[in-house]
Design goal:
104 residues, 4-stranded mixed β-sheet
Length: 104
């Protein structure tokens, strides 16, 4: 599956549009990461636990978006975007979306 953030795939022609595809996941923080994050807030530095959590969430949302595109018969997704939103205290949704197309 070709993924791109632009309107087309360079060097390829879009021959069919399938429409919007999306994938999402909701993740909650955990106590271990919260403790480590609070310590980092004192001394500074990257919050690696949260970085890993967001990477996992981004990958899961992307995988779900790709699965939906494959089920439609697409071989590429253009205009891929990510969005996040707070669902509740300590939980957030990561949402991936784009346009499923067939290119040749």
């Amino acid at each position: 599956m070709i993924l791109t953030t632009v309107e087309g795939v360079p060097g390829k022609e879009i021959v069919e549009h399938f429409g919007l595809v999306q994938g999402s996941t909701v993740r909650a923080k955990n106590i271990g990461r919260d403790i480590a994050a609070s310590l980092k807030n004192v001394v500074g530095g990257e919050l690696k636990g949260y970085t890993e959590l967001l990477q996992e969430a981004r990958q899961e949302a992307t995988d779900r978006m790709i699965l939906q595109a494959q089920q439609l018969g697409a071989n590429a997704i253009v205009n891929v975007r990510f969005a996040t939103s707070s669902v509740s205290q300590g939980a957030a949704e990561l949402f991936a979306y784009g346009t499923a197309v067939r290119v040749q």
